[in-house]
Amino acid sequence: MRIRPWQRAKQDLSEELNSHLRMAIAGRIANGENPTQARAAALRELGNVPLIKDVTREQLGWVWLENMLYDLRHALQQLRRSPAFTATALLTLALGIGANLGVFQLLYAIVLADLPVPQPTEVVRVHAARSPFDQSWTISSPAYERLRAATPDTPLMATAYANDATFQLPNHSPVQVACEPVSDNYFSGLGVVPAAGRLFVQADGRIGQDEWPAVLRYEFARNTFGSAAHAVGQHILRNKKEFLVVGVAHRRFLGDVTGRAPDIWFPLALQTTGAFAIPWDSLGPGHDVSLDKPWYNQPTIFWLFLTARIAPERRAAVLAHWDQVFRTDRELMTEATADQATKTQLLSVKTTFAPLSENGMRKRFMSPLTLLMALSASIFLVGCLNLASLQLARLDARSHELGIRMALGASRYRLIRQIFLEDGLVVAIGSICAYACGRVASGILIRWVSNRNAVFTLDLHPNLPLAALGVGLMLVSLISFSIIPALLFIRSSVAQTAGSSARIAGSDKTARQRLRSNVLLSTQVGLSLLLSTMSACFSATLVHWETVDVGMDREHVLTVRPDFHQPKYTDYPELLPALYSQIQERLQALPGVRSAAVEMCGGIHCGWITALYVQGSSNLTDGQVHGQEDHVGLGFFSTLGIPFLRGRDFSSSDTKGGQPVAIVNRAYARQLFGDADPIGHLVGYGPAPADHKFMIIGEVADARVNGAQREEPPVVYMNINQNPAPVNSIRVRAVGDPRALSESVRRALSDIDPTLTVDEILPLSAELNGDLGTETLLARLAGIYAGLTLLLVSIGFYGVMSSRTRRRKREFGIRLALGATRGHVQALILSQTGLILLAGVLPGAVISILALRTASHLLYGSVNANALAIIVASVVLALAGTVATLIPARRAAYADPLETLRDE
Amino acid sequence: MLVLRALSLEANHGYGIAQIIRSRSGEAFAVETGSLYPALHRLERQKWVKSEWKLTESKQRAKYYQLTASGRKQLVTDHERWLELVRAIGAVMGAEVEA
């Protein structure tokens, strides 16, 4: 065992004093004294040995450390001696601080964090013009090149959005990855440095390479190839096209869109290969658009988002210059509308900048996360209050011991230090647990908050604000849980309570103590009421959105996502209708299947924006003609459970050469025709001279195809057999639970075509509920918080009431002896609980109403309806408080009065 | 200062130092152990003395203290200050006071 320096010093000193003593005795013996006397005299001369040791050791400066270690050991002993208290305190701190850290990490990553690049505020989005139909800030590739060339000293980066794609990786099963095509100056413009290899250079943007360069995200590279360095030089495959991993981006760089972290970045030029599905917008059908040809030289395909790095003082000049250069494109983009007023308005739009922080994620999560932060703070507060009252009770119980120790000469300073050390230890251990808790919590929260379709990838590295928050909460908990109770306790004077007089301490003091614990308890009740109310309202909101009528049979439909984007399908579209009908027949023959149909859309949130002009009515505004479009196969409406209002469904007689037909929903019909019958009208994609070839043959009811929380959009459905194209989903309506069909559907599809891959099979309800990230997060977290505070409040009531009934045992004994019934005694104790509850519930209700008002945009239903939740929560709280009080109350009431009095 | 002076001739242990001071002062100063050891350890921390374990003449282990260079310098300064003080007090007191 290693001897610590202070231990060595201690041994040395003992030995030194011993040798002194021996020499002194030897000296006296030499002078002729007898050994016994010599020893006694020498000892007398030496004096108080431990005192000498103490004083001498103080010269060495180790004493404080030694004392500290002693105190630490003492503290650990004390904590071990009261495991219930220690466990409660640790758990409260771990959950209270952990919840705050978890939520804050999310809040920080989504709302507060800057892009991890140098001078992040210089990086801005460039909004040149909204695309005609999707209204997204996208422009064409030629326009981008012109803008970039116009200001060579301002890095202007372009990115496109690409759908997730399946990749073959070496020694790996195929994986679905998120990818993002970017311009060659993307990384250099942002200032991202590689973690390994290199990032894109100008040559990477060249068209027609055999081997395309790719840059990987750090975590993706590590998970797939073991490390960033290993990933460089690896080859990955997509549809037989080979990609070479040239580099891995810096580990903190997760892309420039919060929450959506691409696994792989490619040069924009990759669009020419057609290997990726990239969303686009255009001037609409009838304009010069060839989607099959490369997009880089087509000015009417809008698909590029712009980002620039530009110092604030240069912004105005650059914008003016860009507006000049962009003028021709702006004029071109107005061709999408026939509405003269809209045209003029579009021409007057100016290019603007928007900070990266102005994004949808931030808008969506700002207030839910702030609210959750507030709720987390409340639960932390409840925890602190609970610990404070526990601590006061504990100090009270220890007052006798502390008093004796002081009487024996322990210094007040040392005692206080020991108490603080004990609490400091609890807080420190609690904080470590809290940090672990927070890490786990933020992981779980991200999963809850994510859309089903896009699991957010966020940077959860520990950061300075998080650490500051952690330390801050630690200090607050230390103050409330240790310092304030200790001070209160010391003020009520340790010495006074030391003797046996403690039991009959002044009634004044006990009254003050009682008031203090009452206030603590009712504050907890109030906060608990707030949390319970919020939890009830959020749960009700979640249930509402999970069950609201979406105009489709949400419980019985299965969505299957096949991958038809292979040359064998895309090159021979004329063969597709036969394949679709084969699939439909095969699936409908499966037991448990009511019907099946193909659909161009891959699910909800999909229908693309279109414009329909009616033959014979020339004065329709943009607001009237714009709607969503989808191409569907036979039996689509009966499969999804969308009822027909008028006319007929598509039939096998609607073929490619015949009369093109369309079905509109109620919302579109109302926009175009008012309340008139739409059947038989001819519509087309453009105004007057354009061809109006589609005949409306049916009108169906509205459905919330953009998600349960969105309004029913106007939709026009075209017959996919008249314009054959690869579909993105097959819908199957089941008799019972659609999940049960997954395997048989998968097998049936592979029987028809073994090469057809199925990306995903999931029920429509899961698809719809996938949007409810915010609601799920709020409901679940608030529910957990409410449960926790309820538990804490119950523990609080139990603790306070049992210590009180113990103190009043004698009084109850006398009361019972004098003829009070057990009911009386119980009522006496319960009435105290009742008063505390009342004192907590009233202010709690007021805070809850205020909170409901501020959070009303996150809740479904009126404030008044939600206020009902307050009453329910109050009842639950009252029940919990009463039950927690009943246990000590019964104990007091059923105690034998004679026993009690004899004990005295 | 007394301790440093006692060590100026040779290294010695705590008991020896106490004996030297006592005998030189003609039994006037009996150095208390309770003051001697804290003083020794303080001097050691100030690096004016250093210590090592040695065997005494009677073959016993004892901790010997020895003056360091800075300790010797300190002794010279202290000694000068002391002489000055004695001179100053002597000048004030002058001849014998008449009773």
Automatic annotation (TrEMBL), chain B:
- At the top level, the lineage of the source is Bacteria
Specify the taxonomic lineage.
Answer: Bacteria, Pseudomonadati, Acidobacteriota, Terriglobia, Terriglobales
Record-given protein name:
Transcriptional regulator
Q: Which InterPro entries match?
A: Metal_resp_DNA-bind_regulator (IPR052509), Tscrpt_reg_PadR_acidobac-type (IPR017799), Tscrpt_reg_PadR_N (IPR005149), WH-like_DNA-bd_sf (IPR036388), WH_DNA-bd_sf (IPR036390)
Give the Transcription regulator PadR N-terminal domain ranges: 3-75
Pfam families with a match to the protein in the record: PadR
Q: Which PANTHER family match?
A: PADR-FAMILY TRANSCRIPTIONAL REGULATOR, TRANSCRIPTIONAL REGULATOR RV3488
Organism, by scientific name, is: Granulicella aggregans
